[in-house]
Amino acid sequence: MTEVRNPFADPLRFERRVPECAIVIFGAAGDLAKRKLLPALYRLAYDRRLPASFAIVGNSRTPMSDEDYRARMREAVKQFSEDGDFDEELWKRFAANLHYVAGDVKEPNLYQALREKVNATGQANILFYLSTQPSYYATIVDGIGHSHLAAAPEGAWRRLIVEKPFGHDLQSAKELNSRIHAVFREEDTYRIDHYLGKETVQNILALRFGNGIFEPLWNRRYINHVQITAAESIGVEGRGGYYQEAGALRDMIQNHLLQVMATVAMEPSAVFEPDAVRDERAKLLRSIKVMGPEEVDLYAVAGQYKGFRQEPGVNPDAQTDTYAAGTFFVDNWRWAGVPFFIRSGKKLPKRVTDIAIQFNQAPLALFGAGDGDQKARPNLLILRIQPEEGISLLFLSKEPGSGMRLRPVSMDFNYGTSFGERSPSAYETLLVDAMVGDPTLYTRQDMVEASWTVIQPILENWSNRRFDFPNYDPGTWGPAEADAMIAKLGRQWRNS
Amino acid sequence: MGTIATVQPERILRDLQELWAKMASDQADSGGVLRACAMTLAVAAENAADAERVRQTVGVLMHSHPSRAVILHPGSAGGELEARIFAECWKPFGKSQQICSEGIEITAGHNGFSEVAKFLVPLRVPDLPVVLWCRGAGALEPGPLAPLFPLADKIIFDSAQVEDADSALQFLRRLRGRGRRVADLHWTRLTGWREVLSHLFDDQGLQASGIKGAQVTFGGPSVTTCARYFAAWIRTALPGTRVTVSSDNGSRGLHSVVLSTVSDSLTIALGSDHCVEVSGPGRHYRSMLPSTSEEALMQEELGILGPDPVYERVLTV
What we know:
The complex is a heterodimer.
Chain A: E1 22-26, H1 31-46, E2 55-60, H2 66-80, H3 88-95, E3 98-102, H4 108-121, E4 126-130, H5 137-146, E5 158-162, H6 170-181, E6 189-191, H7 199-210, E7 223-231, H8 240-265, H9 274-287, H10 293-299, E8 300-303, E9 323-328, E10 340-345, E11 352-359, E12 380-386, E13 390-398, E14 406-414, H11 415-418, H12 426-436, H13 445-463, H14 480-487
Parallel strand pairs in A: 1-2, 1-4, 2-3, 4-5, 5-6, 7-10
Antiparallel strand pairs in A: 7-11, 8-9, 9-10, 11-12, 12-13, 13-14
Helix pairs in contact in A: 1-2, 1-12, 6-13, 8-9, 8-13, 9-13
Chain B: E1 2-5, H1 9-26, E2 33-35, E3 40-44, H2 48-64, E4 68-74, E5 82-90, E6 98-108, H3 113-123, E7 130-134, E8 154-157, H4 165-177, E9 182-184, H5 185-188, H6 191-200, E10 213-219, H7 225-237, E11 242-248, E12 253-260, E13 265-270, E14 275-280, E15 283-288, H8 294-302, H9 309-316
Parallel strand pairs in B: 2-6, 3-4, 3-7, 4-6, 7-8, 8-9, 10-11
Antiparallel strand pairs in B: 1-5, 5-6, 10-12, 12-13, 13-14, 14-15
Helix pairs in contact in B: 1-3, 2-8, 7-9
């Protein structure tokens, strides 16, 4: 569709209109719908971001009436809305647009029933949201295709949002892409990675390319290495069945953390437009050096916490990685030789996601190479993603008093204190983007396949090995092998 | 929370430091306090009672635009210049740490705001934007606030209560012509209306080239700045379109906008419950207008610290 400039647009004051549409959610009674999707949609209604006319049509196997579904989602929204705002009157108006169709996604009749329901709402545009078990994705897309639900009338659109994981390895990702493309065009396919919708991840681009002071230092000459950490203090919390098939490498590193790495390391795009930005992310992902079989043992570590095998639904002999760490290198002029250490795990000492960029030390220890705090320390720029959102710069400062004693200090920017207003949740941002047709924060086929390509040798190596699991205690920073991995390159994890 | 300080900027800043140290110590066991500041918000209140209202508004604004607030108001005849400091604190949902912003309230002495202006310079937070909010219709006339204008990066007025819309607009244009960045909350009140109209043109819903005329109707005895603004906005967006402005007997403010094509017309009219009703071929719906409370309007303006090209274009028409 050709973009026509709206002469009344005022992007400083109001957002582009979210077009009238129906959102068809498969897996609408599931955890994601209850915890994230419905609260996000309700919040968009609260913020007047949804159009006057819209519809949400939920599907799952559980038999329920529209009223039952509304009652169930009302409780979910009340429970999981991040800010506790719940307006009874608004909910009534919102719930009037909430519909439900029970049925099995393998049954062709379901799609006919969905068609009738959507037609009854009068909506011409449809956004399909796959929030079921990943093994059903291809079946649902086939069902949408066979029932002609994907055929949009003149001037209308059909779009598909696919939740992660997108495939379970490179081959399955390619197959899924192929099945989806039989029904939806690539430009209508929105592969969601909710990390990219987080304000702080988007802020990486603002920090790098909106300021003049960082980008000149953002290269191998000044940066010693980068650490990306996504730690959870909790275990699998009842998701043992799913998790033992996925593991930390697939669940976090292949998608979220490689996308974060791409955002940290990508080149600036010529313009801030969806495909220009995504081209740069994809280019970076393709530049990550793919490990050879012999390198996996050097540069990747799997771990499993004690007690995982006793979790409900988990095989007592499971070889699942509840912790994964990897050392990645980027083969381009900017980053050659700079290691990117990525780790993610469950039952670690605290919940934290951050990116630490460690700069090279000052070339001369002018104030002495003493011990303790007096010792020369490299500067660190820390981009904090959760739970506190912000940026910190660590540097040395003179202690007050006589003599020249140096002490590390932190200069902090905190989102909450500079922008008191609430940040939209990642799902609010991403749902609006899909409805207005902006895929900047969604991953593209080539990006997904590039990140699977990076991970594939590790997956293959690990699937052929028998680990001596468990190998780390809950509440510790993972297995000793991960410390050894980073120590081989003369670095150490920031375990603070 | 507050303390009296004599009006010496260094003393005020020192008192603020002590206030922060005391608050940090008092709150040490309950999550602590975090000092937040993203700008200096100077407010020229009309009088002492107005300053009290401003204080409450500023308390709300701090949540989304943490700043050092400097509230200025005229004192009694023969009075002395006085100042007091305060802090506004709030606790974000689910957090134990309090976020606090600081404030200074200055009562002008007999020399009025010209004396205050020189105190304001050292009280601004270095390197952060300074926004000056000039309250009341009187602020839109040449007068005592002029010495404050050069200190601000943005000056916010409210022309809602002015009797003579044309001279208020002239005043704003003159300031703009001198390089000052100005805003008018009566323009901000139109955002909800403008958004509804703009959305009609998103995604080719309505073709701009098809609009032949526009009729803006407002209520009240004389033309308000908001009617002038709305008409000018349509003229800048659709050059060559005939735009007429008329009044009816209803309450003050915008009542309706009718866009005409060769064969049809589309109406946006003020409805009940703070809604507008959109009606025309194939369209009939209600859309809720955003809040036009003073806090909401100021929040919107404080969110725009750089150029505001649409308003600036409208102001020149």
